[in-house]
User: What shape does this take?
Amino acid sequence: MYAFFVTFFVVVILSICEVQRADTCDVTPKDQYIEVGSDAEVVCHTCIGGRVFWTLNTRPIKESLSKAINSSHTVLTLRNFTYHSALVQCHSSDTQQILGGTTITAYSKPSKISCILHYENQVRGVPQLFTCSWEHQIHSSQKINYTVHVSQSEICSSQKTTCTSREIHGSNKIHLNRNFSVTVTAKTTFWEARSNPEEFDPGRIIKMFPPRLNVNASPGELLVMLKSSIKKTHCQVKYSKAVSEGTSEKVLNKTLNPKEIGNVIINGESCRDYNVSVRCALDKALWSDWSQTTVRTPLKKNDVELLLWRKVAEPEKNGVRKVHTMWMEIPPTCEGTFTYTIKKIHLKEDMTAVNYTDTLCSNSTCDVDVNQDAHRLNLTVFQKESLVAEDSVYVPAIGERLPQVTEIQTSTAEGVILVSWKAPAQPVRGYMIDWTHNGNQYRWKESKYTNTTLGDLLDKKPYNITVTPLFDDMTGHGTQALQICSRVGVPGNVKSISVQPYDKSVHVKWNTDSQEECSGDVINYTIFYSTQKGPVLNVTVNSTNQDIFLKDLHPDTPYSFYIEATGLTGTTKSSERSFKTNIFDQRLITTLIVSGIIVTVLVLSLGLCCAIQWKKFREKPVPNPGLSSLALWPGHQKGVCPFQAFNNPSESFCERVYTEETQRISTPPLATGCNSKRTSDQTVEYTDPAILATDAQKGKTLQLVETEHHNSSGESTALLSSENSPFNPYRSQSSVETPALMTNKQHKHMSVKQQEKTAPVTVYVTLNMFEQGQGR
Assistant: This one.
């Protein structure tokens, strides 16, 4: 039957289109709206004949979904349409031409309806309000009007997905004693959708008004008072600390009989702010909204735990020790003024108190001075004149033998420090663990076990940890662990990079700067370098090296590089640097320059030495005769010489060497032989030729010293000695006898007879005379 009506409808449409639009190609109907999940049909009127095909949002549709009625009309059936909006077009199979198109929009009906009966204010009795809400999946810009029907009666309208009515009582509306159904209608200009009916039980949808919250605070607890209605009521009390975010909430349940008043007790800490919330509901009905308030608990003396502790400094020169006491102060949230007093009690060996002094402290720390003896420090806390709490701690004497823990070990894991130790042989009541990162701010805790966990630490800070055993009436000595970091960071940054390029290599140097106290150790360094187009190369060196030569580089080529420092905790990377290799090795040029300078200096030095030696040779052409051995003069006749011999026994007076200048100056000339006689009676005493030669060179006037002797004493010739002359270039050569010998000998006269046929002999001394004299 349904197929018959559809076919009839299509035929009618085709007939109308055939009459009115015989020459027009198009798709009908236009812009139709259908409910999501229903079927849609469109007709394509073909004015050019031939087969057609369909597209949905430009995608081809299966041919099985379309059916040709005749040569000019084709029907497309889209079943279970779920698109919000879709464009359907008809195309000619022969020409691919678009013959027409239409838009199909789907709408949905409202769903998931929920309704409540509630109160407008804190009024008992029948609820005054009825509110419903629902969901509607619609993607339309059109204005939608919603209407809520209760048992076929319209109770409210809205353009939102919620609606509240105050007219809920009366005929054909809501009856609190029986169930009722609710439907929601959505309507626009082009379509209308009605939801499925939803049935409700009035007793289950009643929502109470939020209850009044009455909380009384007492030391260490909160008292919440609850009151029931005329029916059985269930209540829930929820509370949590107000100062800590993320604190878990706790819920307490309380059921009250009709008209019953009940209390809920919350155990809390002293001087804490708590958020307290309460909600209630009739039996099997909806929960009311939460009523919330914040309440602060007063101070409870039993909750005060001072946890007094001390750190004893090394004794000064006078034996006085400074003791830094610290305790857990009363929270500032506690109302009132508190005073802290430290009493210093001096203990003898019998542990009896001999005297004490009071020190008034203003905060949670206080410093007192004690001597080398044992002391007990008592802390008392007063609020006005009322004692709130007290605690004491023992300070041992210097050199007092007390137990202590051993084998203390520490480790880090996920931002906390794990501490363990070995207990002493004596029984203990616990252990005190204190830790600090700067030596000024301490934290401490007590434990009954030989291990503990320290949390809430500063990130990447070194900590000093001390463990001290506690006994009934005293404390032992503390044992300090090795300093440990809360967390080890990555290695320090690579900086201070210097580069010295060459033609085919480069020398790179760097330093590592640890900006953090807990930087990780470097295991190795890796240098990554590359040209602009070349691959990235790398070289790795261990942590002991902070320089490297990169070899096998291309001359006159720019390079970029960076250095990575790798450790167990991570890697740090330096900034990228660049350099350019030289065309040729500068070290070769430096070597050549230095070598040229050295050779030049050597050549100049050698030339200067030669010039100096040549000048000396020209200024002093005659060698020192006293240092040479000469041959006999030409024409010399051997005979006995009456004069004093030279110091050298092998040389005689006759073998002396006279320069040409000396012979020209000395007059009259000497005889050529030792036995020659003078031609006159005049006796001439000869002057030492060495002195004559020396004086002649200095340009001095030479004088011939003549001495006449008596005939009766004989004639003797003495040469003037040159030994005492400071300018004597000769060796010790003297022809004059010593005074002792001259007094014992007779002076002998030498007659000099000038030879008429023999000319005076001129003697020249040359360098080759040394070679001639060597063989004689």
User: Anything to note?
Assistant: The CA atoms of residues 127 and 169 lie 10 Å apart. The mean pLDDT is 78. The first helix runs from residue 2 to 20. Residues 621-776 form one domain.
